[in-house]
Design a protein that fits this description.
The chain is of the alpha/beta class. The protein is built from 8 helices and 7 strands, in the order βαβαββαβββααααα.
Length: about 220
């Protein structure tokens, strides 16, 4: 069985980071949209670009340079995407890239791949099958159905409670222990059963008890 070279999953902070896409077609559009959403300082370089990229440039969401790739285009880049339809150019980009580089035509030449992403509110699931896109697509659809809107709402609810607990004069270790004891499989089972309100009530009761115990504990 062939081992997947991309074995280390990661979530990147790309806000205001210089990212460069070489290529201006439909694939470049598909690669550009999540980079824009991530807040990247994005430049697209190609002799011609898809109308959607041109529109995004007019709104200031990215820059477009209408020319061929040059060797110094990748200087200071944090992420590069080789998205041309020319295998030789993409190989040249991969060889020269001093940064994270994704190669569309030959992924193995790059040093990172972009997994399938399923977003549900503030929840983000990433999925990779190591080269089976048809299976990835089916599994992504299943994830989206299995972790529906209730999970997104519940996560936002938890984030609010987490911020409230941050104000208590307790150690981070105690907060961590509380969440590990409180967020159990039984709570997840309630969400899968469509019992969002009961799940919220269970957590709220636990938080109230924890808050009271923390206030009454000696300092």
């Amino acid at each position: 069985m062939q081992q997947n070279s991309f074995a280390y999953p990661a979530m990147l902070d790309l806000k205001n980071k210089k990212c460069v896409i070489i290529g201006g077609g439909k694939v470049a559009v598909r690669k550009a949209l999540p980079l824009i959403e991530a807040g990247a300082d994005l430049t697209v370089i190609a002799p011609a670009v898809d109308p959607q990229l041109a529109t995004l440039a007019k709104t200031g969401l990215l820059q477009v340079k209408l020319r061929a790739y040059a060797d110094d285009d990748l200087s200071d880049a944090f992420v590069t995407v080789a998205a041309t339809d020319d295998f030789a150019v993409n190989r040249k980009i991969a060889a020269a890239a001093p940064c994270l580089c994704n190669v569309v035509t030959e992924p193995a030449l790059g040093n990172f791949s972009v997994p399938s992403t399923v977003k549900n509110g503030t929840l983000t699931f990433t999925l990779s099958t190591g080269g089976m896109p048809a299976l990835t697509r089916v599994l992504a659809q299943d994830l989206k159905k299995y972790y529906g809107p209730d999970f997104a709402e519940f996560n936002e609810f938890l984030q609010q409670l987490r911020q409230e607990l941050q104000t208590l004069e307790i150690t981070p270790e105690k907060r961590t222990a509380f969440w590990r004891q409180t967020l159990t499989q039984s709570v997840i089972d309630l969400l899968h059963a469509g019992q969002l309100d009961q799940a919220k009530e269970s957590i709220t009761d636990a938080v109230n008890r924890f808050r009271l115990e923390s206030q009454n504990s000696p300092r």
